[in-house]
């Protein structure tokens, strides 16, 4: 009987994954690699006189201090760079939570990224984008206007979600990959994991709704780079790389992407 991929050793995991894996020493190395790729793409486009369009997360966030230090230390201009953030929490009224809320992704990016970059290097405010439940079509229309996305940077959630694209048992893989920017209800599993990490276990205080970019926007990007460094990522990575493509675990649908890579820690690779 074929061995369950959840039980794969590091050697078995790396033998024939359907998604390219880059195993790094620890969390720091993962975040530094993410930051280095962001910097490299922007620098190459700047030298070529091209704009850069990146889809970025608030989770993982460990890459941002390294990125900010590189931008400031090397005087890398972001004036021709667009950051499109993946998602944001919504209140019961289906509108953005307040940016002052400690859970707000908009607030995080302002406090920990934009406010720390030298003003002469920072992109204009209109190039710092979040999906808006009041203007659902804005992000996909903007991406088309800008000529596409250079790279998606993010992570993988406990349900296999990328951004907040939660699993579905009602759609075909083709239909799921066509899902665009939208609002949706967050799964109980995701709320539980996020409640543990962000609110010390106060799951009932976690928002129930979000706005997210879709799998369509993610899959259409030239590159996808995802970071996996938590203990439960051991199972997530194995399913992502060896599970059959299915909307029931959305990241598996990215196995066929032209240029996708997972940055994982040696801890995640092992068992």
TrEMBL record:
Query: Which top-level group of life is the source organism from?
Result: Bacteria
**What molecular functions are annotated in GO for this chain?**
isomerase activity
Ordered alphabetically, the record's keywords are:
Isomerase
| InterPro entries referenced in this protein's UniProt entry, alphabetically | GlcN6P_deaminase-like, NagB/RpiA_transferase-like
Q: Return the PANTHER family for the record.
A: GLUCOSAMINE-6-PHOSPHATE DEAMINASE-LIKE PROTEIN BT_0258-RELATED, GLUCOSAMINE-6-PHOSPHATE ISOMERASE
Q: What is this protein called?
A: Glucosamine-6-phosphate isomerase/6-phosphogluconolactonase
What organism does the record attribute this protein to?
Acididesulfobacillus acetoxydans
């Amino acid at each position: 009987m074929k061995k369950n991929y959840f039980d794969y050793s590091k050697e078995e995991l790396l033998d024939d994954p359907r998604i390219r894996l880059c195993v790094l020493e620890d969390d720091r190395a993962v975040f530094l690699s993410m930051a280095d790729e962001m910097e490299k793409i922007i620098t190459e486009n700047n030298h070529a006189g091209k704009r850069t369009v990146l889809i970025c997360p608030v989770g993982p966030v460990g890459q941002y201090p390294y990125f900010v230090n590189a931008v400031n230390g090397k005087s890398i201009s972001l004036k021709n760079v667009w950051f499109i953030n993946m998602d944001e929490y919504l209140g019961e009224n289906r509108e953005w939570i307040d940016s002052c809320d400690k859970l707000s992704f908009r607030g995080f990016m302002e406090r920990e990224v934009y406010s720390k970059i030298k003003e002469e290097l920072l992109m204009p405010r209109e190039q710092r984008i979040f999906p808006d439940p009041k203007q659902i079509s804005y992000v996909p229309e903007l991406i088309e206007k800008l000529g596409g996305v250079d790279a998606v940077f993010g992570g993988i959630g406990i349900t296999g979600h990328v951004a907040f694209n939660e699993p579905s048992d009602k759609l075909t893989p083709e239909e799921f990959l066509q899902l665009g920017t939208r609002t949706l209800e967050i799964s109980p599993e995701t709320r539980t994991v996020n409640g543990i990490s962000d609110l010390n276990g106060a799951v009932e205080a976690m928002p129930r709704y979000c706005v997210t970019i879709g799998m369509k926007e993610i899959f259409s990007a030239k590159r996808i780079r995802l970071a996996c460094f938590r203990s439960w990522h051991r199972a997530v990575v194995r399913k992502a790389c060896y599970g059959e493509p299915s909307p029931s675990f959305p990241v598996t649908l990215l196995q066929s992407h032209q240029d996708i890579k997972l940055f994982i820690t040696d801890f995640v690779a092992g068992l």
